[in-house]
């Protein structure tokens, strides 16, 4: 077996491990290309001398421990192992994202079995992988990089007298002109509604780009130029320091344009465009200088959104995989899931729940102790009365529920606002001027889910330690729906005696994606039935 992860999880280089995202990837590429990373340099010999690696189960932490104690790079050990193993564990995006999938060289997809665990996330991940958002700020950075390539080429030609195609500044001058024309064209679109933006059918992207002479044929040349530019920037900008790499460096924004072209001109055809929407949105952004803040500068985002997650799954069928298995506790109804993913799933298994009905109570608490409605809709969740009433309810639950209590919020911001209010506002029914937070802490020791993944293991350990503390009556874990606590963790027995969900993380009704989904549904319904369409609004509040 082998397990794949990111450099952020596995890198042990003293400088590169401090970087993040594409800066880290490019820094790693540069050092490995120059053979300046001692950890990468010994991977081949380590693999030859440890052929048993992978015959027993291991995880990312085990690989990192091997790297720290014996020297080889954990990231490249996992990459070498992945070429020959029977079982490969990897994050979703390594398989679904076309760019990441291309990097998995040596893997035979033919006759492979793909198992997606926690597959209730699969639809959104597939749709996101087939979509893109191009911000004008990113486009401006791309133009700057194209200009930098022109300067690097001119410099190389002057000192090396090189006539290589890669160092022809004319190629990057054309690239820069195209990007500037794209920026101008996006800015010239007339947006009548700032809420809904400028929307066209997905196929409009080809008309839009053809006016810039970007077509299926010319895009290939454009992609080649961008690939050359990325290599040029990687080598030109990755200056050497004592450790061998600059901490500032080498994020190639031009790669976002490459990814965008790959999605648009996938397979050289346009049939997939019918599942997309072309959208340009404008928003005011804040820019700040040393002591001056400027508000209201318009920023536009060009989006091409995919509304058919099945497009990503179809790619696996083209690769010749034998089986696709989805597992999760929350995939029902299976018919609609199969329709969304464009797969038949001839074999289906739905098991009864392991918890019998007499072991659990599920209910909605519509009002608090003072009779105020517990409505977590956007209109009411920010009110003082709602936060006051919600805090009082949680105090009461903390008093009567033994051991561990889990409390979920719709978002990190909502959790932060509520906790901040509870810490600084007296409990209205308290006789000793204590705050709501102090009242909670009398019954349960609190733990708050951190935003940063690196701090999450410490939070879990803290929660377990507080549950074991005999001097307390348990612990309360404040967490976020769709966050780290809500996915893949088992709060068994004492760790989870009760769960409170304070509100669901629904998108706002004015979110352009939500509007386009429902607009597409109702238009389809109208075309199929030729009857009047009735728009129904749903007000979903606490506990729904």
From TrEMBL:
Gene Ontology terms describing biological process: DNA repair; negative regulation of DNA recombination; negative regulation of t-circle formation; regulation of double-strand break repair via homologous recombination; telomeric loop disassembly
Cellular component terms per the entry's GO annotation: nucleus
Top-rank taxon: Eukaryota
UniProt keyword Isomerase, yes or no: yes
Protein name: Helicase ATP-binding domain-containing protein
Pfam families: ARCH_RTEL1, DEAD_2, Helicase_C_2
Major localization listed first in the record, in broad terms: nucleus
Record's keyword terms, sorted: 4Fe-4S, ATP-binding, DNA damage, DNA repair, DNA-binding, Helicase, Hydrolase, Iron, Iron-sulfur, Isomerase, Metal-binding, Nucleotide-binding, Nucleus
PROSITE patterns: HELICASE_ATP_BIND_2
Molecular-function GO term, any one: metal ion binding
Domain Helicase ATP-binding: 1-170
Cell compartments where the protein resides: Nucleus
Listed NCBIfam families: rad3
């Amino acid at each position: 077996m082998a397990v794949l992860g990111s450099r952020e999880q596995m890198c042990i280089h003293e400088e590169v491990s401090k970087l993040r995202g594409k800066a880290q990837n490019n820094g790693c590429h540069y050092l490995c290309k120059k053979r300046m990373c001692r950890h990468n340099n010994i991977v081949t010999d380590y693999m030859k001398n440890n052929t048993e690696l992978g015959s027993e189960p291991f995880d990312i932490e085990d690989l990192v421990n091997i790297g720290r104690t014996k020297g080889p790079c954990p990231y490249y050990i996992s990459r070498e192992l992945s070429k020959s193993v029977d079982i490969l564990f990897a994050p979703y995006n390594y398989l679904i994202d076309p760019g990441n999938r291309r990097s998995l060289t040596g893997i035979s997809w033919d006759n492979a079995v793909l198992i997606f665990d926690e597959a209730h996330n699969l639809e959104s991940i597939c749709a996101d992988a087939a979509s893109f958002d191009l911000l004008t700020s990113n486009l401006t950075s791309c133009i700057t990089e194209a200009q930098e390539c022109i300067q690097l080429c001119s410099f190389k030609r002057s000192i090396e007298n090189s006539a290589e195609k890669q160092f022809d500044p004319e190629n990057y001058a054309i690239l820069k002109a195209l990007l500037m024309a794209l920026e101008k064209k996006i800015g010239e679109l007339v947006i009548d509604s700032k809420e809904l933006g400028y929307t066209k059918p997905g196929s409009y992207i080809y008309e839009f780009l053809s006016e810039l002479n970007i077509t299926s044929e010319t895009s290939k040349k454009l992609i080649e130029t961008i690939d050359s530019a990325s290599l040029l920037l990687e080598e030109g900008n990755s200056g050497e320091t004592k450790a061998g790499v600059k901490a500032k460096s080498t994020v190639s924004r031009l790669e976002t344009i490459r990814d965008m072209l790959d999605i648009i001109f996938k397979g050289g055809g346009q049939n997939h465009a019918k599942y997309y929407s072309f959208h340009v949105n404008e928003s005011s952004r804040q820019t700040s200088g040393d002591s001056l803040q400027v508000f209201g500068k318009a920023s536009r985002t060009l989006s091409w959104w995919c509304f058919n997650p099945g497009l990503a799954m179809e790619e696996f069928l083209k690769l010749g995989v034998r089986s696709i298995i989805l597992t999760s506790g929350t995939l029902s109804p299976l018919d609609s899931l199969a329709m969304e993913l464009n797969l038949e799933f001839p074999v289906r298994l739905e098991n009864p729940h392991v918890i019998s009905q007499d072991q659990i109570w599920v209910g909605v608490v519509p009002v608090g102790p003072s009779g105020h409605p517990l409505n977590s809709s956007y209109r009411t969740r920010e009110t003082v009365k709602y936060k006051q009433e919600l805090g009082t309810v949680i105090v009461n639950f903390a008093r009567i529920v033994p051991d561990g209590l889990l409390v979920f919020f719709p978002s990190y911001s909502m959790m932060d606002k509520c906790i901040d209010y509870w810490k600084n506002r007296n409990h209205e029914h308290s006789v000793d001027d204590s705050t709501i937070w102090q009242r909670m802490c009398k019954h349960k020791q609190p733990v708050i889910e951190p935003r940063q993944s690196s701090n999450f293991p410490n939070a879990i350990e803290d929660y377990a330690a507080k549950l074991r503390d005999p001097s307390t009556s348990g612990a309360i874990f404040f967490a976020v729906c769709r966050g780290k606590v809500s996915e893949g963790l088992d709060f068994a027995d004492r760790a989870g005696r009760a769960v409170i969900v304070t509100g669901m993380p629904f998108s706002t009704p004015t979110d352009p994606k939500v509007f386009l989904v429902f607009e597409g549904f109702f238009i389809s319904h109208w075309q199929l039935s030729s009857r009047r369409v009735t728009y129904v609004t749903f007000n979903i509040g606490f506990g729904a």
